[in-house]
Write a structure and sequence with these properties.
This protein has five helices and four strands. It is α+β, with helices and mostly antiparallel strands.
């Protein structure tokens, strides 16, 4: 009787598993937010939100975007204090759009007006 190698003892099993997981990661559709186009336009326009993780108003601003916030230029002022000081950020959140600072929570309509980005909800 031949010595049979168990599946998990075979290095080929692990190589195949890794390849399968990588392929799954590459082809699996990523989640998208409702405002990806709008948030992408903000990011491309150079609009930047400065905030912190402990700021509840910052959290509300992020929540407004949902998953689309990934497209927004964001600076965490606890981690990048020098960047925030250079941008003259005095409170959180602060949006800098077109070289001008806009402190506090900003509605989508206000961000669209300030940036020139069209406010659209993705389908």
């Amino acid at each position: 009787m031949a010595n049979k190698m168990k599946m998990w003892q075979n290095p080929g099993f692990y190589i195949g598993l890794i390849v399968a997981l990588v392929l799954l990661y590459v082809v699996w559709p990523s989640g998208s937010g409702e405002y990806d186009e709008f948030a992408s336009c903000l990011g491309e326009s150079g609009a930047t939100m400065y905030g912190t993780e402990w700021c509840h108003v910052c959290r509300s601003q992020k929540d407004l975007f949902g998953d689309s916030f990934d497209f927004v230029n964001y600076v965490d002022c606890d981690r990048q204090r020098d960047v925030c000081l250079a941008a003259l950020v005095g409170g959180y959140p602060t949006w800098v759009i077109g070289g001008e600072s806009y402190p506090g929570f900003q509605s989508f309509e206000k961000l669209a007006e300030l940036s020139g980005c069209e406010l659209t909800k993705d389908e």
